[in-house]
Design a protein that fits this description.
560 residues; mainly alpha; two-stranded antiparallel sheet; 21 helices; 4 strands; 2% strand
Length: 560
């Protein structure tokens, strides 16, 4: 429906999606987020975190879990309030207009479209145990045949996504139950090999590298990347039954389960490691078999050959499931960008099953681009983490804006203490971006300029494009440039986080540690308050929503 009665009894416009079918129940919605969270991250990030911060890595997963829950709760309110597909690309559009919306929408697409290639590389890495020709362990890159196989795997992801949502959900549910069961079984079995001394081996402290390494490991080890995906329920909100109830529950269930599983996996990764392999401590850990496939290699090292086999099998299933659902999410984000009129309206077309088929083809072709310059799992993680957090930063900003613009709107889930948690979530997002390092931030800046150029060209040919709303986006370039300057002057480089041959730092280190964190927090709060002051007026915001409030717009449903 285009309108509904708000909490104050006034009619409030709501957007509606054209051609999509609401066929996902609570479990199906929760599992779209859960299968995104439990992907290649659990296979690699636990070892990466341990080698960066030792036994204290377990604290990183708890910290990240709390951080992600705060961000997820913001998404829960937004998705239940406006249950539209590709929500992360559309909420900032409604709140601040198209000029700000383009930036967040592009990063939402960038984050989603790069996940499938990352998961493909993870599959190739583990599959090389049986088929060595597809992966070069010396370079950490796929070989020529491995590159071909990643393309084939991505084609499979797209093919499965052409199923009607109710059928796709059944496939995803089976895959997700498997993906949950294997880590849980792994935790139980490895607990019997537990050595508490591994948390500070051979005189190494519990937190080697100190607080600096603890914060750096959040993005650098892939911990934040591992949690990415909780927003998938938001991306598919236009296809969820009773979204006001099911969508917030789905997001919360997925994040809580993911936090528990990841924290326990880190616990057993550290505790079950053979003590003789830690003679030089965690920071100098070196074992080719375990590094190539951390949990499978660990299982083999402690004499659990059967578990090692199952884990290598899961290393094909688990990332594949995540790649498959991110292909789904990518097509819905492009659908949402078309509804915003940022990209050609052909991306808003759906087939008779309610599937945005043009978006699926676009997801495959765009994914191929990201296979070319980044030929390994770790080399994509920092870029995607930065893109993810920039996308996530749009949620608390949008939530704060909506609370002022449409206080009378129906909110099936209402974030408690939003006046505190929304700016806090924005500060958290900025800190995560900052901890990614200047090397990542300046690359994201270039990517953003490219994104604006691409979408700007598309919008130039659309006679029905929305207004640019320059005033409401005035804070956006200042925010990003200011954050870049703080990063350049700060303590986190990001240059050597995942390179075989470490690069020299590109940051200056001028701002002392702790003061740099204060600077990011203060800057974030300034930008948040600025954004709240310049958000779209209520009438203009509702006008943007109303443009998407009609289910049968001409460009929407069409047969593939």
């Amino acid at each position: 429906m285009a309108t509904e009665t708000g909490s104050a009894g006034a009619p409030v416009t709501r957007p509606a999606d054209a051609g999509l079918k609401r066929e996902l129940g609570l479990i199906g919605a929760a599992w779209t987020s859960e299968t995104s969270i439990i992907g290649s991250g659990w296979l690699f990030a636990s070892l990466g975190a341990a080698t960066l911060v030792g036994g204290a890595a377990i604290l990183d997963w708890v910290i990240a879990g709390v951080v992600v829950i705060v961000l997820a709760l913001c998404h829960a309110e937004l998705g239940a309030m406006y249950p539209v597909s590709g929500g992360t690309a559309r909420f900032p559009h409604f709140a601040f207009g198209s000029l700000a919306g383009v930036g967040f929408g592009f990063f939402a697409y960038l984050q989603a479209v790069t996940i499938a290639p990352v998961e493909c590389f993870a599959v190739m890495n583990y599959t090389s145990h049986w088929w060595p020709a597809i992966y070069d362990s010396n370079t950490g890159n796929v070989t020529g045949i491995g590159f071909v196989m990643t393309i084939v795997l991505m084609m499979i992801f797209v093919g499965v996504n052409f199923l009607a949502m109710r059928l796709f959900a059944r496939v995803n549910n089976v895959v997700t139950w498997w993906k949950i069961a294997i880590p849980v079984v792994t935790i139980i079995i490895l607990l019997f090999k537990f050595h508490s001394g591994n948390f500070a081996p051979h005189g190494e402290s519990f937190m080697p590298g100190g607080i600096h390494n603890l914060f750096e490991a959040l993005p650098a080890a892939g911990i934040i990347f591992a949690y990415s995906g909780f927003e998938q329920a938001d991306q598919l909100a236009g296809e969820i039954k009773n979204p006001g109830r099911n969508l917030p529950l789905a997001i919360i269930i997925a994040v809580v389960m993911g936090t528990i599983i990841y924290t326990l996996l880190q616990l057993v990764m550290i505790g079950a490691m053979p003590s003789n392999l830690l003679s030089h401590g965690w920071l100098n850990f070196s074992n080719a078999d375990i590094t190539a496939g951390p949990f499978a290699g660990l299982a083999g090292a402690v004499g659990l050959g059967g578990l090692a086999f199952v884990l290598r099998l899961d290393a094909v299933v688990s990332p594949s499931g995540t790649g498959m659902i991110y292909t789904t999410g990518t097509s819905r984000i492009s659908y949402g960008l078309a509804r915003n009129r940022y990209i050609p309206q052909v991306f808003g077309k759906v087939d008779k099953n309610g599937i945005p088929w043009v978006g699926l083809v676009g997801a495959f072709l765009a994914g191929l681009v990201f296979l070319l310059p980044f030929p390994s799992w770790h080399s994509l993680v920092s870029l995607i983490t930065g893109a993810s957090v920039l996308m996530y930063a749009g949620a608390p900003l949008s939530l704060g804006a909506f609370r002022g613009q449409v206080p009378d709107a129906n909110r099936p889930y209402r974030l408690p203490a939003a006046q505190v948690l929304a700016p806090l979530a924005f500060i958290i997002a900025n800190l995560l971006i900052y901890w990614s390092g200047f090397e990542v931030i300046w690359k994201l800046g270039i990517v953003l300029v490219i994104g604006y150029a691409i979408i700007g060209i598309c919008m130039a040919f659309d006679k029905n494009r929305p207004p640019l709303d320059v005033k409401s986006a005035s804070w956006l370039p200042v925010w990003l440039i200011g954050l870049g300057i703080i990063s350049w002057l700060g303590q986190f480089s990001g240059a050597a986080s995942d390179d075989t041959h470490p690069l020299p730092p590109t940051n200056t280190g001028t701002i002392p540690f702790w003061w740099d964190i204060v600077a990011v927090a203060v800057w974030s709060l300034i930008i948040f308050l600025w954004a709240m002051r310049t958000k779209l007026p209520r009438e203009e915001m509702l006008a943007l929503v109303d443009r998407q409030a009609h289910e049968n717009e001409p460009e929407a449903p069409a047969a593939a």
